[in-house]
Amino acid sequence: MLEIRHLSKSFGSHEVLRDIDFTVNKGDVTSIIGSSGSGKSTLLRCINLLETPTSGEILYHGQSVTGPKVNAPEYRSHVGMVFQSFNLFNNMTVLENCVVGQVKVLKKDRETARKNAMQYLEQVGMAPYINAKPRQISGGQKQRVAIARALAMEPEVLLFDEPTSALDPEMVGEVLSVMQDLARAGMTMLVVTHEMAFARDVSSHVVYMNQGIICEEGTPEQIFGDPQRQETKDFLSRFRKN
């Protein structure tokens, strides 16, 4: 579904990503792990075209999306993203947050968009809060609304950029639970995360990044049970100590 080929990204003279190569197949849950500053979030932002790769190619269903003629909003309706800081519209209600993209980008009529939004808000347990503004709900609830908003666009792939790192510890579980349900339902997901238990238990594929490169990748059993690279072993040992 997604192919990342020889992707590199520099900001000025600072090379953040170097020759990244991997594939995401339909139904995969790929977790990207690594220390802060290893390029994980930049990689996700490149995949969603929020950053322009310096070189390399991103293919969606075999078609390059890195050329100048790509329709980025249309592509993003298929490859949705859930951000660390929620990125909800603060002046809109929970329901309106989940309706507006469907109307503006997918050109749905408001009633169809509303029914669709309600379905996904119910799925993530946020239907009772449809008239609330973002400032009136908790961080965990905001992230669940952000997930419902992304799902309402009916994407084929969902990208998650550290979706729990801005949350209080007691709210992390409620968001991870929604993500586990999505994984069980077969949603194709690419997740940048510091939640090692999620990466180990829910992923079908794990990518470990270090200093802008893919250091090691494989199944959760391979990466967590028998890592081959010393850098991977050192990184995982820090989490085991915690």
TrEMBL record:
Region (Disordered) spans which residues? Answer: 222-242
User: SMART domains from the xrefs?
Assistant: AAA
The answer to whether the entry has keyword Transit peptide is: no
* Compositional bias of kind Basic and acidic residues: 228-242
Q: List where in the cell it is found.
A: Cell membrane
CDD domains, from UniProt?
ABC_HisP_GlnQ
Instruction: Read off the SUPFAM superfamilies from this record.
Output: P-loop containing nucleoside triphosphate hydrolases
Tree of life domain: Bacteria
Which GO-annotated molecular functions does the record name? Answer: ATP binding
Q: Which UniProt keywords apply?
A: Amino-acid transport, ATP-binding, Cell membrane, Membrane, Nucleotide-binding, Transport
Q: Name one Pfam family in it.
A: ABC_tran
As for membrane topology, the entry says: Peripheral membrane protein
The chain positions of domain ABC transporter read 2-236
Q: Which family does it belong to?
A: Belongs to the ABC transporter superfamily.
Protein name, as recorded: Amino acid ABC transporter ATP-binding protein
The species this protein was found in = Oscillibacter valericigenes
